[in-house]
TrEMBL record:
GO terms for molecular function: dTMP kinase activity. PANTHER family: SPERMATOGENESIS-ASSOCIATED PROTEIN 20 (PTHR42899). Its EC number is 2.7.4.9. Residues 2-132 form the Spermatogenesis-associated protein 20-like TRX domain. The lineage of its organism: Bacteria, Bacillati, Bacillota, Negativicutes, Selenomonadales. GO terms for biological process: carbohydrate metabolic process. The keyword Repeat does not apply. It comes from the Bacteria. Pfam families: Thioredox_DsbH (PF03190). Residues 345-372 form a coiled coil. This is Thymidylate kinase. It is an enzyme of class 2 (transferase). Keywords: Coiled coil, Kinase, Transferase.
Length: 655
């Protein structure tokens, strides 16, 4: 007799659409009739996309890590009907192999134990569930986070830095752009050249490696080796957004045109391949095509010669590390790890301009041939959180690189979010949109990342509409997610589905946490609007998370961006005058091209004079003197006299 549904344990599998081993387990097991019969007869089978339901994923990934000492996807959990877990693992083949238990054997064993020892299993589930509940330890006093915390994080990053190839730690290597954003700010604060040297080395090495698509642009998720040569080939929107932001800031700090080029190429990739007709951005591209990981991206030596001809083909192969033996499973990943074009030209006594022209033509020809291959699967769902990150990157690149088309793309994406990813009553952001369907109440990441994006768009356009939207989102963020007792933001809103527990995340992994991004955005909003309530919230967050962050600050580098900002004295630049005035435009361009992360730059546009007076108290009264372009510079709680020449404005900035 079949068990009643309410008496069956729940078999839960969590993965994501571009996950290689999720596809393998799906083909081997979930599409297999024998496995399906066992699951359907004795379990309630649930399969979840972790990117649509990160709340569920966070909770049960913590279970897996607690039980097995590691995590990953596909995530496999078996739990009681009350959703209390008693088994956890990751990928399970159909039958035991490679030292891993087989899914059929595991399911049979669990069914037998459920039938014979249900009380014992429910006791295990209860104990596991209780162990997940946070044991709150309040710091003894406020203000435990300080400049010493920044210094400790720098020391830890320096210790883990790979001087040969950049990045931190051993393989596999993840880009983790917020480490680099932190180091740039540490360099500005301390003038320690080792900090910026780590950034330059890492960004240069990544852009020359196979983790970067040398033909079609964009970064893969991580490198399986320490050289950045062989990636896990899937491309994620969030990685490319954050890396674009990091390359733009590195360009501000170094004026290296290669950093600007890479940022522009990332945006070319996103706008070309990852943007829907309405302006929203897709989530990811798979690592596999035709069932083989990386097949779309790799080349044989023979292919290169056949497409480019023997002379250009041999030159390209020599430059881009293409050999008959191959550098990846008998094939070749195109890369510039051995030397860049300038090194190669110098070594071989070639004209650099001619070499660049030849290589550009060769890359374009190979790209066009590659376009005829079967493409990897594209995950075309649109996530509010990841779109918020891409909006921030586009807006930052737009103002630094002076690209109006990037501004338009950022604004279009914001419009898409508010039109398509907002509940019908207009009171709630939703997390996911696909094929006309928007679903799932937004998580803290959706609100925090969008808030950051809106502030970046405001700083690029100076349109008060975006500042008003940011203020509105900040109010919803507090109302839905704020912990009134201990501070910090819960991952889910108070109106969301009740789960085993309500997590509060601060760890900055491949993506920064919602709390970290919210802290920085709220501080920026505080300085723009002169609303000290935002500062008070972030101070409560510093208290809430200080024990975790102080223990190992290098794991919270985006949160430390907020701390660095908080510890910096307020600094404002207000530029006033007619937007068509070339002197106004030149002042804005100068201010935007400089790396001044602690400085708020405001354009007091006469068109928005009333809005600015209402929203931005610091801009009140700071208008064009005598109808001429005027710059106001205030720092360390003091304002300089207004300046009205570009040369004088430049001198103040250089100070």
């Amino acid at each position: 007799m079949k068990a009643r549904e309410e008496d069956k344990p729940i078999f839960f599998s969590c993965g994501y659409s571009t996950c290689h081993w999720c596809h393998v387990m799906e083909r081997e097991s979930f599409e297999d009739l024998e496995v399906a019969a066992l699951l359907n007869n004795y379990f309630v089978a649930v399969k979840v996309d972790r990117e649509e339901r990160p709340d569920v994923d966070h909770i049960y990934m913590a279970v897996c890590q607690a039980v097995t000492g590691q995590g990953g996807w596909p995530l496999t959990i078996v739990m009681t009907p009350e959703k209390k877990p008693f088994f956890a693992g990751t990928y399970l083949p159909k039958h035991a192999m490679w030292g891993r238990p087989g899914l059929l054997e595991v399911l049979s064993m669990l069914k037998e134990q459920w039938d014979q020892n249900r009380d014992k299993i429910e006791e295990i589930g209860e104990k596991l569930s209780q162990s997940l509940r946070p044991q709150t330890v309040k710091p003894e006093k406020k203000g435990q986070l300080s400049q010493a915390t920044l210094e400790k994080a720098f020391s830890q990053l320096l210790h883990d830095f790979d001087p040969a190839y950049g990045g931190f730690g051993a393989a596999p290597k993840f880009p983790t752009p917020h480490n680099l954003l932190f180091l740039l700010r540490y360099w500005r604060r301390s003038e320690d050249k080792k900090a910026i040297a780590m950034v330059v080395k890492t960004l240069d090495a990544m852009s020359r490696g196979g983790i970067y698509d040398q033909l079609g642009f964009g970064f893969a998720r991580y490198s399986t080796d320490n050289k950045w040569l062989a990636p896990h080939f899937e491309k994620m929107l969030y990685d490319n957004a954050l890396l674009c932001y990091a390359y733009v800031e590195a360009y501000q700090c170094t004026a290296d045109p290669d950093f600007a080029r890479v940022a522009e190429e990332i945006i070319t990739y996103v706008l070309r391949d990852m943007t829907n007709v309405g302006g929203g951005f897709y989530s990811a591209e798979d690592a596999d095509s035709e069932g083989v990981e990386g097949k779309f991206y790799v080349w044989s030596h023979q292919e290169i010669l056949a497409i480019l001809g023997p002379e250009l083909g041999e030159l390209f192969a020599d430059v881009y590390d293409v050999t008959p033996v191959g550098n990846f499973e008998g094939e070749n990943i195109i890369n510039l790890i051995n030397y860049d074009l300038y090194d190669y030209a110098a070594k071989n006594n070639l004209d650099i301009n001619a070499l660049e022209s030849q290589m550009a033509a060769a890359r374009e020809k190979l790209y066009q041939v590659r376009e005829q291959r079967i493409h990897p699967f594209k995950d075309d769902k649109i996530l509010t959180a990841w779109n918020g990150l891409m909006v921030a990157a586009l807006a930052k690149a737009a103002r630094v690189l002076q690209r109006e088309d990037y501004t338009q793309a950022a604004e279009q994406a914001v419009e898409f979010i508010f039109n398509k990813l907002t509940a019908a009553d207009g009171k709630r952001l939703l997390a996911r949109y696909r094929d006309g369907d928007a679903a799932y109440k937004g998580y803290v990441d959706d609100y925090a990342f969008l808030l950051w994006g809106l502030l970046e768009v405001y700083e690029t356009t100076f349109n008060p509409k975006y500042l008003r939207q940011a203020i509105h989102i900040s109010m919803d963020l507090k109302e839905l997610f704020w912990d009134n007792w201990d501070g910090g933001f819960y991952f889910t809103g108070h109106d969301s589905e009740e789960l085993l527990l309500r997590p509060k995340e601060i760890y900055d992994g491949a993506m920064p946490s919602g709390n970290s991004v919210a802290a920085l955005a709220l501080l920026k909003l505080a300085r723009l609007t002169d609303n000290n309530e935002y500062n008070a919230m972030v101070e409560a967050m510093f208290t809430c998370f200080s024990a975790e962050v102080t223990h190992y600050p290098r794991a919270y580098t985006f949160f430390l961006l907020a701390l660095d900002y908080y510890l910096s004295a307020p600094s404002h630049i207000v530029i006033a005058g007619d937007k068509e005035d070339t002197e106004v435009q030149a002042m804005l361009a100068l201010a935007r091209q400089r790396f001044m992360p602690e400085t708020t730059v405001i354009y007091n546009d006469p068109e928005y004079q009333t809005d600015n007076s209402e929203l931005i108290p610091v801009a009140a009264g700071q208008v064009a003197v005598g109808g001429r372009a005027t710059g106001y510079i205030c720092e360390n709680f003091a304002c300089q006299r207004p300046v009205q020449t570009l040369e004088e404005f430049k001198q103040y900035l250089e100070k």
